[in-house]
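Aim 2, interim progress. The first record below pairs a target sequence with its structure tokens.
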Amino acid sequence: MMPVRRYLLVVPLLVGCGKGNFNDRKPSAEAVMTYPLESKVTTLDPGKVQDVGMADVLGNVFEGLVMYDGANDIAPRLAERWETKDEGRTFVFHLRTAKFQDGSPFTADDVRRSWERSLGKTLASSVAADYLGAIVGVAEFASGKATSVSGLKVIDDHTLSVTLDKPRPYFLGNLTYPCAYVVGKAVKPDEIKMSAEAVGTGPFRFGRVEGDTQVELKAFEGYWGGKPKLARVVRPVVTDPATRVNGYRNGDYDLINLSIGDLSTVRADPKLKSQLRLEPRPSIYYFLLNQKAYAPFRDVRVRRAFALALDREKLVNELLPGETVANGLVAPGVPGYQKDYKGLEPDMKAARDLLAQAGYPGGKGLPSIELAYRAGRPDARLACEAAATAWRKELNAPVAPKALEWGAMLARRNQDRLQMGYMSWVADYLDPQNFLSLLMTTKSKLNHDGFSSAEFDRLCAQADVDSDRQRRLGLYQKAERIAVESAARLPLFFENAPLLVSPRLKSVRTNLFGLMPQTATEIAG
């Protein structure tokens, strides 16, 4: 994103109306919260979104049946309650009374229609099958053999039955992802590109949207949870980290995300340092080693050599202060996190020996390697330059960092054309399945590493359906160690997100995923 919590390339949007600045900070009786988006608008459609910024925006406009609350537990949202049957294969959701922002009533059939829309060929969501694909009948629906998803049964206007192909202990977590949000009755099957078309049940509706510059949200007075205390939320697009800090210092913004490079400046500022928050996120930054695009990485000895030749602790502590060195792949806050696991610790001699055993003594014969990172991110540039220097020094490996525009980088990643990449993954839901089975099993569409291990696949498949919590976590831990020790990808750090939060904001709710919908936020008088 969730990372989007995952990430999406930028697409053209026919959004909103009118030009001009609607982020007017002049004194007003209206309660307005302003905080920047770090990238241009990617999509207005919950079935398509994969980036963290727009997922945050859309989470205020649309809702799903469940959500993560402030204690990081699954909590009711459009579903008031639910029960399971058939040893966990069937969920029966009892829905609350609510209405859409156009005034139409919310019903169980809207959930069925919205999920089938996300899964349909017209929308062509790249993520819906990953999160809703366990529902019986999805494969037949996706292939055109069925006109509806047989596992979705509307019992009455306020009751929905969902049957899965097998028990999935993480399924409620799947439903927190935006592709499971419910869209209004008038929303068409193709992608939402006009803000007026984006109708949900959430606490805010879209106001003016200008995809390259700003997004405005307006409070929905008919929200089932009560009208928000904010009248508007304004999200100007500010891609430069220094500009965000200066704007916050000048009072233009109420909250900003900081880059790691800004921390020293903020901590030295008597005023700003008291407004600094470091918030843990269930996310990992890592180096992608793509076996599909760089043939030497198909040899586990080469991958392990790169892992052993990198002193992650030194790199993180010197260049990325405040972050937590990652030795594994499952982030803190996620059940099954292995706090004491050491992973592959640096060993320069062993690294050189492995490379020689693989047929590349002293790096001789290694083709050049492009290490891609996101342009405009100083911390990414520093990390990649330091890693490339270490690999050239210890292995004589011809690694060259290269900045790529984010959309271009993700397009190449999604096409499996990145040789190496400085990447991140933010959990969609708090379960190790989201870090392991979903991303790294052999047949996963999201496996851009080219990693394949029969034992890893077996352990994940067993854990994915095991109803015994401790046993399934143990299986995932074994699988994680196989991936780490095979150097399937190289973990670097777990994120502690630095934020600046203005004292004028009150009751800002957060959880491990960041800001929660702005239902309680208010402006100090």
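The second target in this work package is listed in the same format:
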Amino acid sequence: MSDLTTACTTCNTVVDQIFNPTTGTRQDQVISGDVFFPDQCFVRDEIRFLNGGRLIFTPRPTRDNRDKLEYLDTYYVICRRLTIIGGFKAGDNPDTKFLRNNVITWKDRIQSAKAGNNFGSAAANGPSFNGAWNDQGQGNDGKDGGTGTPGAKGNPGANGRDAPKQVVVIALEVEVQPLSHLVIDWDGQDGGDGGRGQNGGKGGAAMNGRIGQSDTTWPGTGCDRQPGNGGNGGNGGDGGPGGDGGNGGRAGDIIVISAKEHITTGAFVNGSVDYVNDGGAPGKWGGSGTGGAGAPVGGFAGLPTSECSNASNGQAGVPGSPFPTPPLPVDIDPNRGAMGLPGNPGNSPSFQEIQAGTCADLLPLPMVFDATGLVPNHFCRGFSLPATGDASVTGQNFAQATGVTASLAGVTPSIKPLTSTDTQLDLHFQFAGNSGIGACNLVFTRDFGANQTLNNALTVGKFELLSVTPNNGNKGNAVSVTISGNCFDPTALIQQVLISGLSVNVLNVVVVDEHTVQCVFDIANLAASGARDVTVKTGLFVHTKIGGFTIN
């Protein structure tokens, strides 16, 4: 089953509601901001993207669980006319890829997946030993402070969501204003960035050294226990490595169905429309956490007492390490997380020529001709010479006209593409010297759909002299004559009547209208008797009636 047939089958109800000429109601849509659309078939007579409008398909509740939202596999955009005004190419603003762009896309695509959370607190601090010696055990030195706990690895960014399998855009006519663009973005969602690693814990405080004293429990006198050294400060814990970026989502496929001229050299392939389905971008790595601060000082040294007057003070402990440092920029951080993977691309955009059948037959809008018809609507050829002429017809929906033929043999019309518009067709005609004459129909072929006929659009005549009245005159007389015929041109620069032979002058030639020429035949006394040929010439046309006037 073709994509067009599938679209028509899937969207038949809404297409019939809008496009059916007997029951449908015309619906146009200007998209100048965000239009969120939860259904599968976006169908309009005309869709007009205006300076950054976005058509965004959204998920909808499932049948089994109204609280659960899901996307369908395929979405359809169907219109008779697609008009694009403003907007930018997809790569013109990569940091804000949808800002001021005219876009067809899906909701999760316009935001990245959830980034990994940063840790709200540092890792645990090392244990501290702040108390002084108060036992009678052995040893004089204070204990070192404990090392701070290393920070945990940063939380990973979420993987981007896969795009719906495909979007199908069906547009019979496409109009793109200069420097305007549309982006069809069916890419996977971008992966979330990794979170920053947890900061390391602080080093614990050291114990002070024992004060020197005599030990009365031992025999003897004097300083039985020397002053102890202070413990070293605890080292800070290392910062945790950064979280990994999430993977980009898989892209879907883009299918475009339109008239042949739009998918060969027209709007859909000439750069006016951009297609993005190369896979969602990977999430960026998270930076590492900061190392915890070491204990700022070691334990205090023990002091000698009066019993230990000859003893020296104990040594102070040293501070812990490392001290906290500002976090490094992520790009040069050796403990940053890993970059996510890009999403898988979709298939290359597919372009298909629209074909007759199913709902597609409802797409063409009838060409509407104004009551004035073709202007001018009457043309002449020579009696045996070719001729040309130009004319125009006004109305509606003429952009779909691709060609025109005439019902009379030897009459060849053509559309002037540089000056024709959707509301006016400018035509050029060529008339063979032996073309048919009389009423002529024009038959217009269209991008898609049945031909349309403008009946009796023009009449074709031939330049000819039919009669001279009176058709005779006497020698020595000036005879006023009326010449009847067809296609005489009162506006022509050249207007002549000629009579064969000698001694007859033609005076006061007046082309009254298309069918009548008046003049005077001044017949000299010396003119020879008998039949003379009469010739009429207006403009480029000329015709002779053999024996049209007799001299008595």
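The chain is about 5% helix and 35% strand. This observation will shape the mutagenesis plan for the next reporting period.
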